[in-house]
Amino acid sequence: ILAANFSEQVVESFPSDISTGIYYGWACVGNGDVHKMVLSIGWNPFYKNIKKSVETHIIHTFKDNFYGEILSIVILGYIRSEKTFSSLEALISAIQEDIEEAKRQLDLPEHLKLKDDNFFHLPEGKTVNH
């Protein structure tokens, strides 16, 4: 599983009234394949973050690093609210449960069809300057 953080600028552009918590949806790096993902929006209470963060956990094993690539996401549903954990083990266990729930939801026909949406096809030559 690969975790990708959005920049502060992108996080600030999210709707301010979006609930913190764990979401699921689809993610695509550059013009690559579309993969299932779990998204965390919030303060990561376990790590006591001061700034709100948006972290995308792509459910796929990538061979290469893709620093500087465009990350496109579609958020389809909500799994649970944000909470703190008594231990790192409890946090890891919850993340595993979130991933299983995301996989179940994204296999539903109404979610599966969005995997092929044109949103994920970037115009030719569209890249990010490093």
Characterise the protein shown here.
This protein has 130 residues and is an alpha+beta fold. It has 3 helices and 5 strands. It has a 5-stranded antiparallel sheet, covered by helices on one side. The chain is globular.
Which key phrases capture this entry?
single chain; 130 residues; alpha+beta; Elongation Factor Tu (Ef-tu), domain 3; 3 helices; 22% helix; 29% strand; globular; Riboflavin_kinase_bac/euk
H/E series: EHEEEEHH
Low-confidence stretches: none
The level of helicity is 10-25%
The CATH first-level class comes to Mainly Beta
Distance from first to last alpha carbon = 24 Å
Name the structural class: alpha+beta
- Got a strand count? 5
What does this entry show, briefly?
This protein has helices at 8-13, 88-106, 109-112; strands at residues 2-5, 21-29, 34-42, 53-58, 71-80. It is α+β, with helices and mostly antiparallel strands and 130 residues long.
Chain-wise SSE layout:
Layout lengths: L1 E4 L2 H6 L7 E9 L4 E9 L10 E6 L12 E10 L7 H19 L2 H4 L18
Antiparallel strand pairs: 1-4, 2-3, 2-5, 3-4
